[in-house]
Amino acid sequence: MADDRSSHSAIATPTLGPAARAQGVIAGLLSEPLAAGLYLVATPIGNLGDITLRALSVLARADIIYCEDTRHSAKLLQHYGIATRTRPFHDHNEERESARVIDELKADKRIAIISDAGTPLLSDPGFKLVRAAAAEDIPVVAIPGASALLPALTTSGLPTDAFFFAGFLPPKQAARRARLAELSAIPGSLIFYEAPHRVAETIPDMARLLGSRDAVIARELTKLHEDVRRGTLAELAEATPMEGLKGEVVIVVGPEQAQAVSDETLTARLAGALEVMSLKDAAKALADEFGVPKARVYGLGIKAKDELKAKDVGR
Fold it and tell me: Do the domain assignments include residue 83?
């Protein structure tokens, strides 16, 4: 069986435009047999054009497509003329259906898993199925594509070098606040999915538990009424009308900002630190603790030493 992960460079001539080239790629993919295995296929989060050619070819060649909601997924499949048989696979039947899927995979079936939108398994069912398939040495292949969390993060204007995807928060306030308290110490941007009817309760809780951080509420990404709202958590809680929101919502919260620290505070802390370590080590330790440049702390240490020498000379 051919491995669908191969690249396809046999695309007509350089004079052909993007439509003809895309047609050549999809034709090449569809002409090859699809290897047996479990395919995790990303689907659009709104704009139907945001599906890859490889995803279309896998869905068209699969024996069965398991969907969160077959009626919802039917719109995508009908749009692209894909007639592959579908079955439901969601939170309420995952335990029962996983055994059936594993049996089908053992019989060398080509099985595709899709969610209602985006990349499967991100706050969606399928985790247990993938573990079971891996335990049976059944190939599990990711067909990457659309996802709500990365577009929300990259368009937020918030730090992207370190981030934590926290999924959905608990719906009840006490549990939600406890979870936010746990997440508050994570040194990076935090990404949440949230139901639109709970945003009006969630944002004030975030302002209370996470402090004055920059944040973004991204709604209906890639759709006609895409909406991105920016501000501190407190500003968003006070100034943004959120009652009656509709559509999928992603909340991105920036990392905690370093508190301003005075030279006097750093110098006082340096005095104690220098009793047990070198200036170089003390500067690094305090820079890490307060989130300030190491050079600033080192300079204060040099200044303090010079002042001590001047006092000794004047005696």
Answer: yes
